[in-house]
Write a structure and sequence with these properties.
Mean pLDDT: 85
Number of strands: 15
Structural class: alpha+beta
Distance between the termini: 4 Å
Number of domains: 1
């Protein structure tokens, strides 16, 4: 189903008007807003240059290089990824961000060890698209997802990681406040490894389905884009995704910003798969 209007903004989230030339000077205030809310929304008087964008990112941490060969043509300065519909539709997750297709909810870098996952995702708007055509950045709080899961489910998820990635993070590392390292794979089968040999594989599969269900029943908020806005999202506090778009060109520029994080847990002992059910198709396709 196609969404005909944007999701509401996070209640109480304020916008900070800034001049491009003064962007780096406000890095401490930006970080303070991220610490308080997990999301910061800045309104610039123009489009940040690549150098200005990267300089601001460096004040938050280490801009992570975009090294995948398939996205090289969309990259500026080694770290800035242009997200615009160069393709009409794509069933390949690697190209979904460059099409009109929906991007399902996920943690950025979910398959990586936590120390290599971005802490922040910076999105700078070149063209905002339209509230009536979908193509909206959406956010779901990990704290709201945690409230929908039992301690038992969290215990199972804390011992599960993706099977095809060495040293991947658990889906729900045992930390407070809660952090999830998960991507909705839709109807695709998920290969996983559980580090607790006593856990029934059916319980693992059900916990993954329950996590996906919790993501899509938790409150969903959206970014109301305006030209030249910059939105920074704490990847440890929010899942993010994008609704299906049509008809209006939207162009965002993205930098992933990393910083040291807690190493991932232990070795594997058993393996199977699960296909989580998801209401994403019914909400945004």
């Amino acid at each position: 189903m196609h969404v005909t209007s944007w999701y509401p903004e996070i209640p109480g989230l304020s916008r900070l008007p800034l001049r491009c030339a003064e962007a780096v000077e406000h890095a401490d205030e930006l970080r303070a807003r991220l610490d308080a809310d997990g999301v910061a929304h800045l309104e610039f008087d123009g489009l940040l240059t690549t150098d200005q964008f990267v300089a601001l990112a460096r004040r938050l941490g280490d801009p992570q290089p975009e090294t995948a060969a398939e996205v090289a043509r969309f990259v500026d300065g080694g770290v800035v990824l242009n997200l615009a519909p160069a393709l009409e539709w794509s069933t390949d997750r690697a190209f979904e961000p460059f099409s009109w297709s929906a991007v399902r909810l996920h943690t950025e870098g979910s398959a990586r060890p936590r120390r290599r996952q971005p802490r922040y995702v910076m999105l700078h708007c070149v063209e905002p698209g339209s509230p009536t055509t979908g193509d909206q950045t959406v956010l779901v709080s990990m704290a709201d997802v945690r409230e929908r899961l039992t301690d038992e489910q969290m215990g199972v998820l804390s011992a599960v990681r993706l099977d095809d990635v060495d040293d991947a993070s658990p889906l729900a590392p045992a930390v407070t406040p809660p952090i999830f390292c998960f991507r909705d794979f839709g109807a695709d089968e998920i290969q996983w490894v559980c580090t607790r040999s006593e856990t029934d594989p059916e319980d693992v599969a059900q916990a993954i389905v329950d996590l996906a269900f919790a993501m899509y029943t938790a409150p969903c908020f959206g970014v109301h884009w305006a030209r030249h806005a910059l939105v920074v999202v704490d990847n440890y506090r929010f899942f993010h995704g994008r609704t299906r778009g049509a008809g209006a060109h939207r162009h965002l520029r993205r930098i992933r910003v990393g910083q040291p994080a807690v190493p991932s847990a232990g070795n594997s002992s058993s393996s199977t798969s699960a296909t989580p059910s998801s209401s994403w198709d019914s909400r945004v396709r």
